[in-house]
Amino acid sequence: MQQKLSLIGRLLIAQIFLLAGISKIGGYAATATYMEAMGVPTALLPMVIILEIGAALALILGWQVRWMALALSLDAWLLRRRDRRLTMA
User: Fold this and answer.
1) How many angstroms separate the CA atoms of 43 and 47, rounded?
2) What span, in angstroms and rounded, lies between the C-alpha atoms of 83 and 34?
3) Which residue range forms the structural domain that includes residue 28?
4) Non-local CB neighbours of 18 within 8 Å, separated by 6+ positions
5) Concatenated DSSP letters for the chain?
6) Which of 9, 15, 45, 49 is 20 to 30 Å from 24 at the Cα level?
7) How many domains in the chain?
8) pTM above the 0.90 mark?
9) What are phi and psi of 29, to 5 degrees?
């Protein structure tokens, strides 16, 4: 039972980042424009896509779960932190 719940939890968390990474591929130009407007170098976009998709797949497979979860949480935290600064300005 615990293994099934763990898998379901990993799937739910991973889907957020997997879908975000895939949408960044589909809307590459729009994402690059957004990143540039936020002051983030657009050269980082391929690495962000690889991180989101790769770490999400690693979570689903159960490989290095703690490290992948940490990487994804830092990714999400940094993006939200930047958005919050913009809305406060």
Assistant:
1) 8
2) 11
3) 2-88
4) 52, 53, 56, 57, 60
5) -HHHHHHHHHHHHHHHHHHHHHHHHHTHHHHHHHHHHTT--GGGHHHHHHHHHHHHHHHHHTSSHHHHHHHHHHHHHHHHHHHHHHHH-
6) 9
7) 1
8) no
9) -65, -40
